[in-house]
């Protein structure tokens, strides 16, 4: 007996089911312009099959995280984790047959592609004993399987396209049934789209997209015009899991909705134009004058006499700068040795630093917050605080680099100066105070755009950095490995 999900009704009001078991073997492609109802269609399918099969959703806009509470999906916010962690999560997902939503919201396009590639590749590479059936839904698939090169790096595009191709071409034997949705068929790689045997085509207006949709549905070109006339929420369906002939479906209702909700008109406030003008252009009130200083407090004669009779404090001993620098260096070493300090903001660590200096006999350390931030960046980069005066060249080269980016730059400069292996992404992330590999890549790109470093990747995939202004270069190493201790 087939296991089916009711997707909606046809033009005669008859229900149109989708066979889940057949879908696992034949895959699905959904196409439609923005606002045609693709997300609603996917939500209807996911809600109907939630208790029947494992579901893995790659969600670039965070639309499907609302499935978590009513249906028990686990939401993974990709921006909080590294690519390596994404791979480990994917392996556990296959092992434990958990339904998850991978939310890529908040990441840039290139970071989304990197994350999706790592995640989908790990799903695909799971051990044979974990090849359980699962629906893998990829929304906005044209982002991850583009038909042509775009603004992202070629290696990122190739990795993402390869992962999508494996999902759609070879995933069936591993239990993975790809369900991809796209706004533009013309922007989706043909070898990815061609592997689907089931199609749900929604409203589209561009001739090239209508022509491709008509070809996939087996319609003549002159019949493609009806795709333009489809209403929102209506789709033409074809495929072994749906119908042997193209049939129009009106998608049924769903229980959940996207966090953003639907865009709708709201009535404007009813105010006369003069009132609104007066409100917007009302004179700005001047800042209130500061209150007058309080009158001097009268000191009673007895208190004044007591103050006069109190001996003056002994003259303070001269400040020993060398002793303070030694104490500050010890305090900084203790501070950065704390594993949690890497992820605490500089102002909070500044208070901790002052306390450690007071414990060493310096009541008011003569270090401003800006100076402390530079000392902290150098210590995090592995530069001994006692040797900070030897790094004037590197600090001068950094120029106006923000304090939070100074530590990673000095880490690279230190490795280049010593001729050591290039620091790995994990180590740069620790110095930068983040768990996100995407932030690390954007950081490196930012520093490189400023002309402070130059990166190079050789044919074996090993990376090296140069500091052009100083003539220093690191030894090549794998970016995924942590090179320095």
Give a short overview.
By secondary structure, the chain is of the alpha/beta class.
Explained architecture:
InterPro entries: ATPase_Atu1862_pred, HerA-like, HerA_central, P-loop_NTPase. GO terms for molecular function: ATP binding. It comes from Sphingomonas gilva. It holds the Pfam family DUF87. The chain has 485 residues and is an alpha/beta fold. The chain has two domains: 4-251, 3-Layer(aba) Sandwich (Rossmann fold); 321-473, no CATH class. Helices cover 40% and strands 15% of the residues. The protein contains 18 helices and 14 strands. It has an eleven-stranded mixed β-sheet with strand order 2-1-11-10-9-3-8-7-4-6-5. Strand 7, helix 6 and strand 8 (176-182) form a beta-alpha-beta unit. Helix 4 (83-96) runs parallel beside helix 5 and helix 5 runs parallel beside helix 6. The longest helix is centred in the middle third of the chain and has 17 residues, at 154-170. The protein starts with a strand and ends in a 12-residue tail after the last strand. The model is unreliable at 311-316 (pLDDT under 50).
């Amino acid at each position: 007996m087939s296991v089916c999900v009711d997707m909606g009704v046809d033009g005669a009001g008859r229900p149109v089911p989708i066979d889940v078991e057949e879908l696992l073997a034949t895959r699905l492609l959904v196409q439609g312009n923005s606002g045609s109802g693709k997300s609603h269609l996917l939500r209807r399918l996911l809600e109907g099959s939630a208790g029947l099969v494992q579901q893995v959703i790659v969600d670039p806009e965070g639309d499907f995280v609302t499935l978590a509470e009513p249906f028990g999906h686990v939401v993974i916010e990709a921006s909080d984790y590294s690519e390596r962690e994404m791979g480990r999560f994917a392996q556990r997902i296959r092992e434990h047959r958990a339904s998850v939503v991978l939310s890529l919201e908040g990441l840039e396009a290139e970071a989304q592609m990197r994350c999706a590639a790592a995640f989908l590749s790990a799903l695909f590479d799971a051990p044979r004993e974990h090849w359980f059936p699962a629906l893998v839904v990829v929304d906005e698939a044209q982002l991850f399987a583009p038909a042509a090169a775009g603004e992202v790096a070629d290696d990122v595009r190739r990795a993402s396209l390869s992962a999508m191709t494996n999902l759609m071409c070879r995933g069936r034997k591993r239990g993975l049934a790809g369900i991809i949705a796209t706004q533009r068929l013309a922007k989706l790689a043909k070898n990815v789209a061609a592997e689907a045997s089931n199609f749900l085509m929604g409203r589209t207006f561009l001739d090239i997209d209508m022509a491709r949709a008509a070809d996939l549905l087996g319609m003549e070109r002159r019949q493609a015009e009806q795709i333009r006339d489809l209403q929102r929420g209506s789709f033409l369906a074809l495929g072994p899991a749906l119908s042997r002939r193209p049939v129009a479906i009106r998608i049924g209702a769903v229980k959940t909705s996207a966090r953003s909700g639907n865009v709708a008109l709201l009535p404007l406030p009813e105010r006369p134009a003069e009132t609104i003008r007066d409100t917007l252009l009302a004179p700005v009130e001047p800042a209130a004058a500061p209150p007058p200083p309080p009158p001097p407090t009268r000191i009673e004669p007895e208190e004044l006499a007591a103050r006069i009779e109190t001996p003056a404090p002994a003259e303070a001993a001269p400040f020993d700068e060398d002793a303070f620098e030694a104490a500050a260096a010890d305090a900084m070493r203790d501070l950065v040795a704390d594993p949690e300090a890497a992820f605490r903001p500089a102002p909070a660590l500044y208070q901790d630093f002052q306390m450690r200096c007071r414990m060493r006999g310096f009541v008011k350390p003569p270090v401003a917050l800006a100076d402390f931030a530079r000392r902290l960046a150098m210590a995090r980069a592995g530069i001994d605080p006692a040797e900070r005066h030897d790094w004037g060249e590197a600090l001068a080269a950094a120029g106006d680099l923000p304090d939070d980016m100074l530590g990673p730059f000095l880490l690279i400069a230190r490795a280049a100066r010593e001729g050591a292996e290039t620091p790995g992404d994990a180590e740069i992330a620790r110095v930068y105070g983040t768990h996100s590999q995407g932030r690390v890549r954007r950081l490196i790109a930012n520093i490189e755009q400023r002309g402070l470093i130059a990166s190079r990747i050789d044919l074996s995939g090993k990376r090296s950095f140069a500091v052009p202004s100083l003539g220093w270069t690191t030894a090549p190493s794998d970016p995924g490995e942590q090179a320095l201790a």
